[in-house]
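Recap from last week: sequence in, structure out.
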Amino acid sequence: MKKASNKSLSSADFYDDVSEFYEKMIDFEKNLQLRVNAYKNIFERIGSVADLGCGIGLDSIALAMNGHDVTAFDISPKMIGETNKNAIKFNVEIKTQISSLESIPKVYMGHFQNVVCVGNTIAHLNASQLKKAFSKIHGLLKPNGRIFLHILNYEKIVKQNKRVNNIAVRNGMAIIRFYDFFREHINFNIMSFKLDNPKDFKLVTTKHFLHTKAFINRELKSAGFRSTAFFENFERKPFVRLDSKDMFITATK
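Predicted structure tokens:
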């Protein structure tokens, strides 16, 4: 394993580094069933869906299992590789492409009925990048197309000032997620090590930007979206600004 580094990695390098144990960290199969059930209600009409920041394919596979025509995008080549492996494992067909939100090819403009971007992907974009990303997502959608976004509720995280986010122990490995707090961003860290050899640990770091409900709502409308709504979970329970752990957003082109 690589030793600790204080360097903040790009999103691509960060997720390349964690791809080997990411499935253990997120409890893939438990969350897959949750998403299969949730997406049946969120997207009642079967159609074409873009999964932006697909990671190892959790949302893409859930959507494909529900009958959608899914194209998955991620900036990390290794994450795309894991998505392809998982698609084979769960016997679904998913088209994949290595691409950031900003660099999705023009051929996909106006191609999708729905776009999902779940797993805190938009937290990796600064304010300027997020504005451009919302404009790009708007362009990807067909008329009356819908988006379903997710980001952690950073107003609550900053208020709590709690450094440790999560500790998971699975299959002889410990995975610790924790924060470093700064004025305009948070450093998101993942430390991993085998329980029988904790001194041989791996520590990777990337930046998360502290986008609020007010900012996201304003920029979605500026990009041309309408009917924005905010929730705290997949079941679409109403979002509470300083209480909800997560922020889920729907909007229509």
